[in-house]
Amino acid sequence: MNDLRNLLWIEQRKALRSRMVLWTLLASMLAPFGVGFLIWVSKNPEISQKLGLVGAKANLVALAGVDWASYASLFGQVIGAGGFFLAIFVISWLFGREFSDGTLKDLLAVPVPRSLILLAKFIVMAVWSALLTLAIFAAGMLVGVLLKLPGGTLNALLHGAAITAAAGLMVILVVMPFALFASMGRGYLLPIALALVALLFANLVLVLGRGEFYPWAIPMIYAEGKTPLPPASYVIVLLTGLLGWFATDYWWHHADQSR
Amino acid sequence: MPLSIETTDLGKSYGAVRAVEHLSLRVAEGEIYAFLGLNGAGKTTTIRMLLGMIKPTTGHATVLGTRVRLGSRQPWSEVGYLVEIPHSYPELTVRENLEVARRLHPGTEPAAVDRIIERLGLAAYADRRSGQLSQGNAQRLGLARSLLHNPRLLFLDEPANGLDPAGIVEIRELLLELTRQRGVTVFMSSHILAEVARLAGRVGIIHEGRLLRELNIDELERERRRRLVLRVRDTGAARQALLGAGQPVQVLPDGALELANASSIERPDEINRLLAQAAVPPVYLAVEEEDLEQYFLRLVGMDGAGGEALR
Is the peptide bond before A219 cis (omega within 30 degrees of 0)? Predict the structure, then answer.
């Protein structure tokens, strides 16, 4: 327990001292303020005309009717897509930086188990991603208040919060294999490239109507809430996380480290 | 004498490339063992195998009585190391980087951080981000990290890298003190021969992945070639006189004469007398010793003369 506490201290200190926490927080704010801006424009057609947003008019009209219930659930989708990329950045940085900064070797011949070093990194990744999810939702709700959206009930808010939290948890699980890709690729490039490929594939399987069996499409389908997910989808998400964790652990124990 | 490091037929191949092969080493407790080789000879691969970072393709290694395995926890609480370029977390200060190292070695007391900062002369930089350190101070930080938890065995890959001459002397004295006063074993790699000669008790010479020689430092001194070099005003006459007296002599490209046989090296006064009698007295006469670089290049066959088979 003491070892884990020490390792968590190390990981949080590295994260907080780097500017990554701040950058990911700033990036995460794009979503609530971006969505808020679009709703504000759609509610004020004269502004959209001034800004020359005529081409986007149809989409904006759809946003004009947004009430608290649909607005609060919208953040599940924001997390499913945008949050996925933020979590990819977080996990790629936590694991990949040890390789690209050359600091990995100082984690290898030490009297603490490598599994525990990895566990600390996964815990920090999960907490960091959860805090970003919370920040996105909280900022989103603030924007909702500023927009004076209609139909604000506690139920609508709680429902939106539950969907956002569940989507956030799913994202944390499905990004875990990218710790392995960051380790195998010895840096940030491979996990980020593979995340793009995973999203491209997600679009493909969604068109084919098989998204509920593809781990990197499941959080989006869940957050949209249009099609109910079969229980297998939840199992797939959980297995993706566990597999990512175990495979990373196995790789750290068995691969040659010459950097 | 108990052994700190023992390897048996240790080898590592990457496909057809044999980085290290048939390496059998024995390093006794409390000794400074220098692992000497050119760049790419296999020094770092060996150190990484000894530290359980690379899995050997053949053989095995034992460090402080524990068989080394990839990813194991033992015996690292008593081992300190500095492998290749010392990297640190650039966003953390020197003190924070050492605090990270301390927490990776449970049981190391918090005061150890300040002690090692003082010891390695890093006090003025303790609160500076390590990304802003000079190469020499980054090297000091790397050394501080390796020494922080009072290890019994130190692996140092090119420890003098980036240090200025005063720093090199300081680190040399520190390592000598650690071995003499605390019985710490040091396994260091280097390609700086003069540095090795001042520090190490034993030397292993590795070339193209193979251990060419293992010898004590006094053996190394004895093995260095000596020769008698002469300069005269009339090279031809001097050569004739020497050959006439049965002394095998060579004329060097710069016109100097070289005698490599034992009798002339041990009795240069006789050679002087012989030449004086032949009316070609030497204007320069010296017994010169092959320097370590020349010795090393001769040993690995890169002296331009095809080398010498010393396996």
Answer: no
Put simply, the answer to whether A105 touches B100 (Cβ < 8 Å) is: no
- Does a structural domain hold residue A259? no
Is A196 part of the contact surface with chain B (CB cutoff 8 Å)? no
Domains and CATH numbers, chain B: 3-222 (3.40.50.300), 226-289 (3.30.70.790)
Question: B104 and A18: CB-CB below 8 Å?
Answer: no
- The CA distance from B38 to A33, in Å, is 59
Position B51 scores a pLDDT of 96
> B104, A252: Cβ pair inside 8 Å?
no
Interval B109-157: pLDDT, tens: 999 999 999 999 999 999 999 999 999 999 999 999 999 999 999 999 9
Tokens 């297995």, located at residue: A239
Q: φ and ψ at B35, to 5 degrees?
A: -110, 110
Per residue, what are the HEC states of A22-70? HHHHHHHHHHHHHHHHHHHHHHCHHHHHHCCCCCCHHHHHHHHCCCHHH
- Tracing tokens 């390792």 back to the chain, one arrives at A7
Residue that is written with structure tokens 């003025």 in the block: B124
> Residue A6 domain-assigned?
yes
- Residues on chain A touching B105 (C-beta within 8 angstroms): 110-111
User: What total number of domains does chain A contain?
Assistant: 1
- Rounded Cα distance between B108 and B277, Å, is 74
Residue A136 φ/ψ, nearest 5 degrees = -60, -45
Nearest CA in chain A to B101: A106
pLDDT at res. B90: 95
Residue A225 domain-assigned? Answer: yes
